[in-house]
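TICKET: design request
STATUS: open
ATTACHED STRUCTURE:
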């Protein structure tokens, strides 16, 4: 097959552009690292009062336990002011010493697999997901075991939780079955190891990579060559190959998706126990969202026919909401009128702290206040806002865990 000469020029142009893009990307990564001051992300630290608040104990109790030497082996660092500067790992270890149990789901409670999706690009899927995950992980002492699966080959949520490995195994690698097991290694071990530790002690991430795009192409080819669903199980790969092997290691798994209704998305649906749909309250976004919802029903029908067991909840989440903007307020009213209790009570407000943190791939919870490019007030306001959203999300999650229900229920 001969290639048209104009097509060849276009191809050469794209190759040259790819090289420039790669250099630019490398330059930007260096820039972020310089901004973060170290290659490893440094988690914010807590004062003694903040640590006591998080642990739910009296500040004096903490001091007494320090005096008794109960925490000596944790080697807690002190800040420049001579006071203790606790990391979240320190606080979690102190909780164990103080006998404060982690609040994990019971074996019989269902693992929560929450997918965040909308066909509208840029509506706040990734920003919402990473900040909600960080809030769930860091603003209470429950020590939920949280997994994030980045099902968007663009890798945006992976960038918030950078891997220490140069070339980590991605979710696409596992779904595409392109990793060979080492001797004596089981598939379960491989998948568990692929969920990498992050700078937040109770969050692990299964990152994405650009090659994950090949999953779409390969699945289409596979489908041409096979005659029955049982041969390929191409919508069950995420659930069966990735989630089931590690299901006992997590309480909550959050899945970020690309703005696309592709094979990856069908896999996310098949694995999901709940769905969050971000809605950016602008007229064109709301209209696009309504068109997406018409299509989602059809797609879900396919997944249901192949055995999906239904969602525990499906909620709309208003994102990037500019308070005081009249047209946005009218749209939020329309969203609430249309979808009623399916809409989360609090929107995620537009916040300069979120913009600033995101520009260096930080959530508003894991960053040191001094590293934030936004004002302290704006950071605290955004944290309070996300905590309100997370309180409701946590209630929705826990209502599916029989073991956590009060005996009065
Ligand atoms: N609450 C917020 N406050 C300030 N900026 C926000 C907020 N939510 C999202 N943004 C900004 O909006 C832009 C798009 O957000 P984000 O990347 O989360 O969208 P997305 O839906 O994941 O996009 P994509 O479809 O490309 O995956 C980003 O620049 C992000 O920083
Ligand atoms: Mg995204």
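STATUS: resolved
RESOLUTION: sequence designed for all positions
ATTACHED SEQUENCE:
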């Amino acid at each position: 097959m001969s290639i048209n000469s104009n097509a060849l020029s276009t191809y050469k142009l794209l190759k040259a552009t790819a090289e420039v893009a790669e250099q630019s990307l490398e330059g930007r990564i260096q820039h972020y690292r310089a901004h973060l001051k170290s290659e490893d992300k440094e988690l914010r630290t807590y004062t003694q009062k903040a640590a006591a608040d998080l642990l739910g104990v009296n500040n004096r109790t903490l001091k007494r336990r320090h005096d008794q030497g109960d925490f000596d082996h944790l080697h807690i660092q002190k800040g420049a002011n001579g006071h203790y500067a606790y990391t979240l790992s320190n606080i979690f270890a102190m909780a164990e010493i103080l006998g404060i149990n982690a609040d994990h789901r019971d074996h019989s409670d269902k693992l929560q697999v929450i997918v965040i999706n909308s066909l509208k690009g840029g509506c706040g899927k990734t920003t919402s997901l990473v900040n909600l995950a960080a809030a769930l992980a860091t603003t209470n002492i429950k020590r939920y075991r949280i997994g994030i699966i980045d099902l968007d080959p663009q890798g945006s949520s992976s960038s918030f939780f950078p891997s220490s490995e140069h070339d980590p195994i991605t979710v696409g690698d596992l779904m595409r079955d392109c990793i060979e097991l080492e001797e004596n290694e089981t598939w379960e071990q491989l998948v568990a190891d692929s969920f990498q530790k992050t700078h937040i002690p109770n969050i692990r991430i299964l990152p994405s990579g650009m090659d994950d795009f090949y999953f779409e192409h390969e699945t289409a080819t596979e489908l041409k060559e096979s005659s029955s669903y049982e041969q390929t199980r191409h919508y069950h790969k995420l659930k069966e190959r990735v989630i089931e092997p590690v299901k006992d290691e997590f309480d909550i798994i959050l899945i970020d998706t690309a703005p696309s209704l592709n094979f990856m998305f069908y896999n996310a649906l098949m694995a999901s126990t709940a769905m969050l749909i971000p809605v950016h309250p602008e007229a064109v976004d709301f209209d696009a969202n309504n068109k997406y919802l018409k299509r989602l029903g059809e797609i879900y029908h396919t997944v249901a026919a192949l055995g999906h067991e239904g969602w525990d909840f499906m909620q709309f989440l208003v994102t990037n909401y500019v308070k005081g903007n009249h047209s946005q307020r009218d749209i939020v009213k329309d969203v609430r009128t249309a979808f009623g209790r399916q809409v989360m009570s609090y929107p995620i407000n537009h916040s300069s702290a979120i913009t600033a943190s995101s520009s260096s791939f930080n959530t508003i919870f894991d960053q040191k206040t001094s590293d934030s490019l936004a004002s302290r007030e704006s950071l605290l306001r955004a944290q309070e806002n996300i905590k309100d959203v997370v309180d409701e999300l946590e209630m929705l999650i826990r209502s599916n865990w029989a073991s956590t229900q009060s005996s009065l229920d």
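CLOSING REMARK: The chain has a mean pLDDT of 90. Residues 5-36 form the longest helix (32 residues).
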